[in-house]
Design goal:
single chain; 154 residues; mainly alpha; 5 helices; 70% helix; 0% strand
Length: 154
């Protein structure tokens, strides 16, 4: 299994959260072990992971734009930010399902027997993190809106 794939999946929050939420807890990386060459299925799924990462980054860009819009009051920012998260939430769930299915299939592959426990742990942890990402992003939005505005420089 590609270490990059596991790390990308478990670190999705780092890319999904807007800049004001960069202090979100980092995902624990699985231990590095030697792995056989990637299969065509792994290569294809890694491409899906890269596409999902790009979508997550786009959500972050959209959220940041809303949060930095000085013309909006906090209630409007929260409404718009939540609407953005609502739009991306099904994508997080769909990718979580695909990731879990993919990892469980990889764990069942006899060529991956030495990594089976690591892969099964990732099959549980990574989808759970993805499913919790939108709630964590919403909490970050609330926290950012509750923070006092920085003092104007003179």
């Amino acid at each position: 299994m590609s270490l990059r794939l596991v790390l990308a999946a478990t670190a999705t929050l780092a890319f999904a959260a807007p800049a004001f939420a960069q202090d979100a807890p980092a995902a624990a990386a699985p231990p590095v072990t030697a792995a056989p060459a990637q299969s065509p299925e792994e290569v294809a799924f890694e491409a899906k992971g890269v596409a999902f990462e790009a979508e997550s980054r786009q959500m972050g860009v959209e959220l940041q734009a809303v949060m930095e819009d000085a013309a909006l009051d906090n209630a409007t920012k929260k409404t718009r930010a939540n609407a953005i998260v609502d739009g991306y939430e099904p994508k997080f769930e769909a990718f979580a399902v695909e990731l879990e299915t993919f990892l469980r299939a990889m764990a069942a592959n006899p060529e991956r027997a030495a990594q089976k426990d690591q892969i099964l742990a990732a099959a549980t942890a990574a989808p759970a993190q993805l499913r919790g990402a939108t709630a964590q992003i919403r909490a970050s939005i609330d926290q950012a809106l509750a923070a006092p505005a920085p003092a104007a420089a003179n």
